[in-house]
Amino acid sequence: MNKWKELFVATLISTICLYFAFYKVNLNLLLNTLKSANYLLVLGCISLFVFSMIIRSFRWRMILSSSYTISLRFLFESIMIGYFINSILPFRLGEFGRAYALSMKSPVGTFEAFGSIIFERLIELICLLFILIIALNFQSVDQILNGNQIIFLSLLFIFLVVVLLNSTFRKRIISYFETKSIKSSNRLSSIYYKLLEVLKGFSLFDGKKNKFNILSMSFLLWFIYYLITILGINAIGLNLTHLEALFLLIFSSIAFSLPSAPGGIGPYHATTVFIVSNIFMYDNNQALALAILLHAVAYVPEVLIGLFYFYKYSISYQDLKKVKIEKKV
Asked: Domain extents for the chain?
């Protein structure tokens, strides 16, 4: 799809989601809810978010440790640059910016760094599916997903784990998609290429001696995000249960992966409002206030800290476009 068409579709999705997020919301009540929030807890949320970026840096160093020894500072700076770019620019350029920034300060190549980022995302997806499947064992979740959806998620989780751990099975799938990619039309070939990119990302797990540590760090990250969600809920004054908070975290995180304007604006807010007000039956004004607060808890430090390092590294938009074009070639 043409990049401008992609931007139009993403902006349209964000606009529609924001419309539904603000639908039936009283702006005066919304502002009063935000004014009366406990900002000491909000400060705690921001501190935990920055701490999670440090944990991400540790995990990234573990992923690259078999080939490189990299300063934790460079990893942290690269991560913040990536998040900053994703917060202000379209097309998910932040992933390329993060890889490019690391290549500027270390012996890691840009595309090798990009492959490790894909691997990170895959590990996080597997951990998220595991947490969701465990949570779905509780009886109170039948209002969220039906039996067929639960079975599908379970099968997807099993498939991803097998692909991650069984390199022989993975190589067969890669070979199949490579053959399909050659024989297919341009559009289908592009889809196969993206699937191959994801599957090859799993290969970084092969031969790792610190697999348990990488997985442990990933679960720790989700636990930190869960704590941030709990603190945000308390800051607004909602009385969601711990299980409801967990489901809110899971589905709002999935919403971030949807096409949207920079920073995930729109889908995250609409999803949070829908879950809190339509499923858990709380006030729309409080639901949107929670969405705005939790989004800001990540967005503000991403922009402020990331902006500092972005200028420090003197990265330009042309650098990001060049990296992305070379990656496609």
From this structure: 3-328
